[in-house]
Amino acid sequence: MEYRYLGKSGLRVPALSFGTGTFGGKGAFFSAWGDTDVKGATRLVDICLDAGLSMFDTADVYSTGESEKILGAAIKGRRDRVLVSTKATFRFADGPNDVGSSRYHLIASIEAALKRLGTDYIDLFQLHGFDARTPIEETVSTLDDLVRAGKLRYIGVSNFSGWHLMKSLAVQDRYGYARYVANQAYYSLIGRDYEWELMPLGIDQGVGAVVWSPLGWGRLTGKIRRGAPLPETSRLHETGDKGPPVSDAYLYTVVDALDEIARETGKSVPQIALNWLLQRPTVSTVVIGARNEEQLNQNLGAVGWALTAEQVSKLDAASRVTLPYPYWHQAQFVERNPAPV
Fold first, then answer.
1. Active site residue 175
2. Would you say residue 336 lies in a domain?
3. pLDDT tens, residue by residue, 86-107
4. pLDDT tens readout for residues 298-326
5. Looking at the domain assignment, is residue 283 inside a domain?
6. pTM above 0.90, yes or no
7. What CATH number is associated with residue 266?
8. 3-class DSSP state for residue 188?
9. What is residue 6's three-state secondary structure?
10. Which of 44, 135, 206, 247 is 20 to 30 A away from residue 94, measured at CA?
């Protein structure tokens, strides 16, 4: 397993991380992802560690805390061998302060997460989304206090706009607070919006991408084909309308290119899609998920080899879209505004 620096920090993380959204299966949304219990989770952690994958990502809202509890049980006795990443700020309960990035909610959320995970520190904590109602100064000063207290080792964000992240970094720099080094963002061959604003920001500011849903919300598993019905086990039946939107015409163009390269390389469609991401600028780690051992071993096969420059170019061309303004305008003046890719 290749290890990379997490943004402009001294922390090295595996190129692939394991996402535990499939742990717990509590509630209609997360039951469609999976329902792995402690025994199954322990086995998946075993396989990950044997492969050199030592970073595990979760969130308080995954199965209303069950994912964190199950992960904590699965890593019990080997905490020193793993990196734990979790997130908060989405609504967790019905109280008026059970949501957002206030000092009150952040402290309560992190204390609860530590208890569920069975640990006294979190390696990477990320704000699950931006809170426009709480002053940025309140949020980042609270996180800085928690870093200084040893409860958080590194901090990051998720699902922020470019200006959300840049303004937050500016406040952190102004007061000398602990800085965001990670941006957990959606990025895939059928979702390249990350490249427009967040990737250049990451390059400039030293913020590494922690990629979520790298297979396009389950659309690049190799099981979806032009003119064929969705597989019976696909989570898209229950969650397709809640994930990133994509047209069928665009999806199948990309899938056709993936199929062509799969025939050339002998690799699977998901392995190719993941390998393409691992070659993109700013990507520190790609979060893979799996309901079972077979899926996990399949995804682990994305490392240890590399697509050729020609194959990358084919995938780039198949997945290219018309940029929104001002990016299409900026792309015409690469002499003074070079593209990051």
1. no
2. no
3. 999 999 999 999 999 999 999 9
4. 999 999 999 999 999 999 999 999 999 99
5. yes
6. yes
7. 3.20.20.100
8. strand
9. coil
10. 135
